[in-house]
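User: Sorry, what's this?
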Amino acid sequence: MEVTMPEHKVRIFSTTSCPWCIKVKQYLEEHKIEFEEINVQEDQEAAKEMVEKSGQTGVPVLEIDGQMVIGFDKEKIDELLGIKG
């Protein structure tokens, strides 16, 4: 019997040149977690949404099933996605 990870709604607010954004995307890809990337550098409406939801202007900001995670907070990301270390 194949075990599949439950589907999570993951959005990453990022910019093109942010090294931590790249790291968090690589981390999610390693764990086969699908995500939607939102480039706040190119999308001013998305940038506004990110600030309204998180109170942060820096990236990365992740939204996992409606919960905001500021930065590459591996512990919090693992907890919300059920990733076992």
Summary: Strands lie at 10-14, 36-39, 61-64, 67-70.
